[in-house]
Amino acid sequence: MLAYLVRRILQMIPIILGVSLLVFLLFTTVGEDPVRMALGNHATPEAIAGLQAKWGLDQPLYMQYLAFLKQIVTLDFGESYTSGDKLSEMFGHGAIVSLWLTVPPFVVGLVLNLAIAVLIAFYRGSWIDRYSTFLFVAGMSISYLVYIMFFQYVFAFILGWFPINGYEPGLDGVPYLILPWIIITIVSAGPDIRLFRTVFLDETKADYVRTAFAKGCSPRDVMFKHIMKNAMIPVLTYTVINIPTLILGAFLMERFFSIPGTGDILITAINNGDFPIIKALTVLIAIGFTVFNLITDILYAYVDPRVQLD
Amino acid sequence: MSFKRLVTLSCLLGSLLTFGSACTKKKPGEEAKASGGKGGPKVFYHLRTAEEKSIDPHKQFDAASALMVRSLYDTLFQYHYLKRPYDLQPALLEKMPEKKEGNTYLFTIKKGVKFNDNACFPEGKGRELNADDVIFSIKRFADHHVNDRSYTLFAGRLVGLDEFREKSKKEAKGFDYNKLDVPGLKKVDNYSFTMQFTSDSPLNLYPLAASQMSIVAPEAVKKYGDDFDKNPVGTGPFVMKTYSRRGTTVLSKNPNYWETYPTEGEAGDQEKGLLAAAGQKLPFVDEIQLPLIEEPQPAMLKFKSGQLHWVGINRDDFQAMIDRFDDKQFKLKPAFADKFSLYYAPSLSTTYLKFSFQDKLVGKNKALRQAIAAAIDYEGYINLMLNGRGYASQSLIPAEIAGSSKDTGSQWYKTDLELAKKKLAEAGFPEGKGLPELNIEYRSTSKDARQLFEYIRSSLGKVGIKVNGNFQTFSNFLKKTEAGNFQLADAGWNADYPDAENFYALLYGPNKAPLPNDGNFENARYDELYLKMKDMPNGPERFKITAEMDAIVKEEVPYVLLYNQIIAALLQKDVRNFKRHMMDEYPYKYFDVAPK
Predict the structure, then answer these.
(1) Which of A147, B79, B365, B534 has CA 20 to 30 A from B287's CA?
(2) How far apart are CA A296 and CA A289, in angstroms?
């Protein structure tokens, strides 16, 4: 187990290096020039040179990349080009807000979607299955933006059930978050339930299911005691791998509801050419994905005794 | 997972919904409606559409930050709130500066102006403003370690200030400004100082009205250091109550503010009630709430539900809410007219397409440029792309600046396809035959840029001119245009100060890139006239010169002048004293909210 962990952690290094190199090259060669974005029209060569020096952009590319690697190792990504705020503080505040926005609907949605998927799989081929399939496919076909605009217009503006937008820290923020939570839950329902249903239906064709029926188990027992347990591996992969994205928040949701989370920070940074924010968040998410991938693999061993970590 | 659990979860979601409705602290409309209530504080609810970059005046360079800086700080000069054309007047000064020897002027500061109370002062009590504060602020504006964005605004104007900036590079960050003298900036006594300018131009004073040249308290700069931008200390009409860059910022009234509401305005202001508060102490509202709302939909929904007093209006909402008439008049549709007020005014900007004179084809072929100018359907462009919110430009100068076509009688091309065809033939390309596809550079890849291009393409296509749009990132656009490496480019100019010189300088020969003449237009007569009009006061003599410059622009067509935009906004009915001011876009200190 320990050897497995060490090996996997060592394997993460080239992945992070690759991602960092890709991000660095992408933004230094293709992206906006942050100095020109900051200075705008008619900047003097002196002003351009001054800002380049201040941000270390006058250094050769390899030096800039090494400085970036140092930031990754120390997890100190410096300051925002536009506001001068420390990124660690910005991300700290933003991540808490984003998690407050995404975790409740993620947890509620997971439980709810699993329950509905089991229900649909249990009644496969029935009208429940057919109508729900239609409903969820239709739901998946509608853009996220449409949900946001429609719900904000109808439930917040016309009906006045929720604030139109805004945010306050802590429990005071709950009234502002309920409508976004509902939207996230509804939007995630379609893809999640379709996936979970497929996983459950795949399991129903397995040999152990026939054996369970042969032993006299009821359909409900087979579904809840046997199938559900075995279907957990793909469900687990899907769920755990989504956890890092929770920190990134929900871009459009944060934008439309004025929720100051990490997603909104990232969109603003892209608009402003704020390279330190973009590269830091990209690398942090890459690290998040590799770490949670590892956690998923470790969890496999607990969920399925057939899986050996060697 | 059992049905029981499913039911439990549904109940949980249901209760969240109910909880949400019950917990909504303020029902729609309640906030703004409460603002004018008897006894309670008067609150003006507005919004910020972008995060401010820095509210340290000497680091500030963006519009979002200017909104804050103008409310928290004062400048030596400001533009009259009501008079048009925009009139420069003393702000922190007792009177306009007195001319002494040569280019030296004596400035006298108002007595009794106090900084806001802050912990940086002894016992937390704001002290009186003095000449040292002004000298400190001007030096800090020029300090290389502080200001890396806006120094060009005042560069080359004050004797010794450029040298001070150069020397500041060699000093450590936060150095003592008394160490370096600026020969053109001398203290006379506590309330007066002199400035020696490098030339005797009326334009020298305009930068002193810019928010970037606000006067700050040296004690606050020293105490807060790098955090000064989060702890603003000025003499402005408001003080920072709550600062949240990505949430709601709240400004509260400075009870000791020195200014009173203007007692005169332009014709019609009296009838509109804009002089009802003449002579009264500013500001009128106790608090300004400024949430960050970056998307137009929630902003408009909040406005419609009465939670904002003032909102800008985008193209779609404009279409849905406003009727337009042929004479550039706009009215709210009946469904909205009883609830809201509409305000619109011309901006101080001109939008155009510019030619590069380095390009061998368009730069050398005047008739081709004239053909393009005659082929574009200007009114159609304004009606379709801007919902009619614009005037077809008649000269470089926007309507609200002295020296516009109202004063000079200048006229730009009218759409004339016959003339365009004739000029195209004259250019050597009858009906466009033999003319290669021309490239137009755009600074964005957005849908709006593409739509604007499609309109131009369709207009020019009618006479046989084919064009291609290059849509790119802003920095790539700048690199390309500043190198003169383009044929046509999307462009525009917003007034830095309300004087025609600011626009005519765009085509002055020596102002080549990185200065604004990146199309490299050169015309000896134009340059001669520019130098003549540059430092002249407005009047018939100056307008005669600028009329000739307009004629040169029309003949040579370095630009295809498209439009001067009209800016529109919606207001709640209870807002008082609102007049759109393009040199100070958020003049909250003059606004009032009627009591219920």
Answers:
(1) B79
(2) 10
Residue B315 and residue B202: Cα distance in Å, rounded? 39
- Please state, in angstroms and rounded to a whole number, the distance separating the CA atoms of residues B277 and B209: 24
Instruction: Tokens for B262, please give them.
Output: 């203007």
Q: For tokens 């957990």, what's the residue?
A: A232
Check CB contact under 8 Å for A32 and B24.
no
Q: Does B18 touch chain A (CB under 8 A)?
A: no
The dihedral region occupied by B29, where left means phi > 0, alpha psi between -120 and 50, and beta the remainder, is: left
Name the residue among A31, A115, A162 with its Cβ closest to that of B5. Answer: A115
The CA distance from B319 to B288, in Å, is: 29
Residue B425, SS3 per DSSP: helix
Q: Give the distance from residue A35's alpha carbon to the nearest chain B alpha carbon, in angstroms.
A: 8
With CB atoms and an 8 Å threshold, state whether A157 touches B148: no
B232: nearest Cα among B67, B363, B465:
B67
Of all residues in chain A, the one with the smallest CA distance to B301 is A157
Where does the pLDDT of residue B18 fall: very low under 50, low under 70, confident under 90, or very high at 90 and above? very low
Q: What pLDDT digit, counting tens, does each position of A255-300 carry?
A: 999 999 998 898 888 877 788 998 898 888 888 888 888 888 888 7
From chain A residues 112-131, the ones with a CB under 8 A of any chain B CB are: 112, 114-116, 118-119
Nearest to A260 among B229, B247, B479 (CB): B247
In the numeric block, which tokens belong to residue B22?
């019950």
pLDDT at B461 over 70: yes
Q: Which of B275, B220, B260, B274 is nearest to B91 (CA)?
A: B260
The string of DSSP codes covering B267-303 is TTTTTTTTTTTTTPBSP--SEEEEEB--SHHHHHHHH
Query: DSSP letter string over B19-75?
Result: HHHHH-SS-TTHHHHHHT-SSSPPEEE--BSS--S--STTT--SHHHHHHHHHH---
Q: Chain A partners of B2 at a C-beta cutoff of 8 Å?
A: 224
Provide, for chain A, the percentages of residues in helix, strand and coil under a 3-state DSSP scheme, each rounded to the nearest 5. 80, 0, 20
- With left for phi above 0 and alpha for psi between -120 and 50, is residue A42 left, alpha or beta? left
Q: What is the Cβ-side half-sphere exposure of residue B554, based on CA atoms within 13 angstroms?
A: 16
- Confidence at residue A249, expressed as pLDDT on a 0 to 100 scale: 67
Widest Cα–Cα separation across chain A: 84
In this structure, chain B runs to a length of 596
Among A residues 245-304, those touching chain B with beta carbons less than 8 Å apart: 255-258, 260, 264-265, 268, 273
Cα(B213)–Cα(B153) distance, rounded to whole angstroms? 9
Cβ partners under 8 Å of residue B577, min gap 6: B261, B273, B274, B276, B277, B284, B590, B591, B592
What confidence score (pLDDT) does residue B14 get? 45
Chain segment B79-90, per-residue pLDDT in tens: 999 998 888 999
Q: Which residue bears the tokens 């963006």?
A: B62
pLDDT grade, residue B4 (50/70/90)?
Answer: very low
Beta bridge partners of B281: B260
Residue among B297, B311, B441, B482 with most chain A CBs within 10 A, to mutate: B297
Give residue B39's pLDDT band: very low, low, confident or very high (50, 70, 90).
Answer: low
Any CB–CB contact under 8 A between B144 and chain A?
A: yes
Work out whether the CA dihedral B414, B415, B416, B421 comes out positive or negative.
positive
Please answer whether residues B440 and B467 qualify as being in contact, where contact means their C-beta atoms are separated by less than 8 angstroms: yes
What does the alpha-carbon distance between residue B153 and residue A43 come to, in Å, rounded to a whole number? 11
A166/B13 CB distance under 8 A: no
Place of tokens 């609150």: B43
And the tokens for B302? 């909040």
Beta bridge partners of B158: B197
